[in-house]
């Protein structure tokens, strides 16, 4: 079934380079598939390394005039883009659900979340301050901030709108230009954003969208081209490490938002109903396909059985299906391969002694669906403890003491998001400071917004997105010494 939009102009299938909608160099295309139905939604242009270089050169040219504009003029344009996204929320949500699979209520929420970064950084971009340092002898020392340069961005399929605006908004706000490679699974959301950006008045070349089936070629040009001064990436740790290596030859700035292995630590003194509700939202949002999903639910022994009972009963009420149907609570996963990867992890855990309380199998609804699953009797030596699941599977671990919980939480190379449920004020401080994560939610799992610094430690990445700190990765600090005064 074709995508039904109020504004058919938002459905683009060509790449967007230097203000033009262009086909692939040799007319090459790739299909975009609806994971709920397996139907082909569109054939989208697949660009090459040569076209990527053209986009980078256009960005360098466009940036010269853009960075010279007063910050308020850049802000006004971002505000117009923000307004157009709000005006077209439903169409953008329909596109997102069709190509990504998440239920419409989640897509509508993501569109608003994505728009919030344009609004936030339209304001923050006017607040890039410098310093006058204390005088020494007959000199004056000044520090100013300047845009880092042309930025290359590579974004994932799980949040095909917000992961773009979270990068492009601060970059443009401070005077940079950006070339973007969206995920091949979800290019339509990126192209619709570019269309709205063009309507808002973005200068040609300032923001290009490079849709492609050849990520290696396009990514290789982005990381090797000396015009690109920074690469920002959201995705797996493995790919992030590869990109960092590729950027080393030209010593590019990088910011990386990589994999996660988020623990939800629930102590005996927690509000059980709130803990169950928070863990449910964190684990199963987007069918478990977020980097800050609850990957390990760790419950203290005294309330373990009660938690499992309440949590499993709630999971049994989920309704999986096509995200375009309003009754659907949880949609498909992104590919058939993802279903296989999820099931192999569940199978390995069961073979090692885990118990399936709910689900545990690919769904009869189709090859892109996996049953929302709850596992108990899981232990630290199972692969589920160390590996990011990225699917609707909740392993529930048991612990005895606070020290054991902290040790379990830190027993991973990842350090993105974490969550703690307790009503003990001292414990809140001890655990929040003792666990090695860039973000800690206390009695709360919905921790993301445009005003907070999103990012991780260890192998979960570097840099922060959102908040006042989100500008830092797109700015260089310059020191000016004035002598002879």
CATH architecture identity of the largest domain:
3-Layer(aba) Sandwich
Tell me the major beta sheet: 7 strands, mixed
The total domain count is 2
Q: Determine the fraction of residues in helical runs and give it as a percent range.
A: 25-40%
CATH topology of the largest domain: Aldehyde Dehydrogenase, Chain A, domain 1
Number-wise, the strands total 20
Tally the helices: what do you get?
14
- Please give the radius of gyration in angstroms: 23 Å
- The low-confidence runs, each spanning 5 or more residues with pLDDT under 50, are none
Summarize the helices and strands and which ones pair or pack:
Elements: E1 15-17, E2 20-22, E3 29-33, E4 40-45, H1 49-68, H2 71-87, H3 89-100, H4 104-124, E5 131-136, E6 139-147, E7 150-154, H5 162-173, E8 178-181, H6 187-200, E9 207-209, H7 215-224, E10 228-234, H8 237-248, E11 253-257, E12 262-266, H9 272-284, E13 294-300, H10 304-315, H11 336-351, E14 355-358, E15 373-376, H12 383-386, E16 393-399, H13 402-410, E17 417-421, H14 425-434, E18 439-442, E19 461-462, E20 475-482
Parallel strand pairs: 7-8, 7-10, 8-9, 10-11, 12-13, 12-17, 13-16, 15-16, 17-18
Antiparallel strand pairs: 1-2, 3-4, 5-6, 6-20, 11-19, 14-15
Family: Belongs to the aldehyde dehydrogenase family.
InterPro entries: Ald_DH/histidinol_DH, Ald_DH_C, Ald_DH_CS_CYS, Ald_DH_CS_GLU, Ald_DH_N, Aldehyde_DH_dom, Aldehyde_DH_Superfamily, Succ_semiAld_DH
Domain Aldehyde dehydrogenase: 21-480
């Amino acid at each position: 079934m074709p995508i039904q939009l109020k504004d058919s102009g938002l459905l683009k299938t060509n790449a967007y380079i230097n203000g033009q909608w262009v086909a692939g160099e040799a007319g090459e295309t790739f299909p975009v598939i609806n994971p709920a139905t397996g139907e082909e939604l569109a054939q989208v242009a697949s660009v090459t390394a040569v076209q990527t270089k053209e986009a980078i050169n256009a960005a360098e040219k466009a940036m010269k005039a853009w960075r010279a504009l007063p910050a308020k003029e850049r802000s006004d344009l971002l505000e117009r883009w923000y307004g157009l996204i709000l005006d077209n929320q439903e169409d953008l949500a329909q596109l997102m659900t069709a190509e990504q699979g998440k239920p419409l209520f989640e897509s509508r929420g993501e569109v608003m979340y994505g728009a919030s970064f344009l609004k936030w950084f339209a304001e923050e971009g006017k607040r890039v301050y410098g310093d006058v340092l204390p005088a020494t002898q007959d000199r004056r020392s000044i520090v100013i901030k300047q845009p880092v340069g042309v930025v290359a961005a590579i974004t994932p399929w799980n949040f095909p709108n917000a992961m773009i605006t979270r990068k492009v908004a601060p970059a443009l706000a401070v005077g940079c230009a950006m070339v973007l490679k969206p995920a091949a699974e979800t290019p339509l959301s990126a192209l619709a954003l570019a269309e709205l950006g063009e309507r808002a008045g973005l200068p040609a070349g300032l923001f290009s969208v490079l849709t492609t089936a050849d990520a290696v070629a396009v990514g290789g040009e982005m990381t090797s081209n000396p015009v690109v001064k920074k690469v920002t990436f959201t995705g797996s740790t493995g790919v992030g490490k590869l990109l960092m290596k590729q950027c080393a030859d030209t010593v590019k700035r990088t910011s990386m938002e990589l994999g996660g292995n988020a623990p939800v630590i629930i102590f005996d003194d927690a509000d059980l109903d709130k803990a169950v509700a928070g863990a449910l939202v964190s684990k199963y949002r987007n069918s478990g396909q977020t980097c800050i999903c609850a990957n390990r639910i760790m419950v203290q022994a005294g309330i373990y059985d009660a938690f499992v009972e309440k949590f499993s009963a709630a999971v049994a009420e989920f309704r999986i299906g096509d995200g375009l149907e309003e009754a659907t609570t949880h949609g498909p996963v992104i590919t058939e391969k993802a279903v296989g990867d999820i099931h192999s992890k569940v199978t390995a855990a069961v073979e090692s002694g885990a118990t399936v309380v709910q689900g545990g199998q690919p769904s009869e609804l189709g090859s892109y669906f996996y049953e929302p699953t709850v596992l108990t009797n899981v232990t630290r030596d199972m692969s589920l403890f160390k590996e990011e699941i990225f699917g609707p599977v909740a392993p529930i671990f048991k612990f005895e003491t606070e020290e054991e919980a902290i040790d379990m939480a830190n027993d991973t190379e990842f350090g993105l998001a974490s969550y703690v449920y307790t009503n003990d004020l001292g414990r809140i401080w001890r655990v929040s400071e003792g666990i090695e994560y860039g973000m800690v939610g206390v009695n709360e799992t919905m921790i993301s917004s445009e005003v907070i610094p999103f990012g991780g430690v260890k192998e979960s990445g570097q840099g922060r997105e959102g908040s006042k700190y989100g500008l830092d990765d797109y700015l260089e600090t310059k020191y000016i010494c004035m002598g002879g005064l």
